[in-house]
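Protocol step 4 of 5: obtain the predicted structure for the target chain.
Materials: sequence only (see below). No template structures provided, no constraints applied. The aim of this step is simply to have a reference model before the mutagenesis design in step 5. Sequence pasted as it appears in the construct record:
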Amino acid sequence: MEINLIEMWKGMGLPVRGVVILLTVQAIACMGVVVDRLIMLMLSQARSRKFAEQAAARGGVLDAAQMLKLSEQHPGSHLAEFLRKGLAVFVELREAGKPVELAVDL
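Step 4 output (structure tokens):
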């Protein structure tokens, strides 16, 4: 049995054709989103690796201010963004007079 898409299209009513067109557009849009997210994740991974390499190259333990400054130099890195937000809250709590133990727990 052979499937002929042109014959199927000719045999469809107007509402069915509308549904086929709508589903086709949605499928194409979905594939576009998948490709976009894959590209975004690959770029973010590369940026995060670069950030981690630069942080490791500094050697030793960096204080919060140094790490915040370094993380701000790497936009688009999910790792740098994660550290920047966590350290910003930590620094804010320390400046508010919270002890280190409480600032770390929150």
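Step 4 remarks: The chain has a mean pLDDT of 88. The radius of gyration is 26 Å.
Proceed to step 5.
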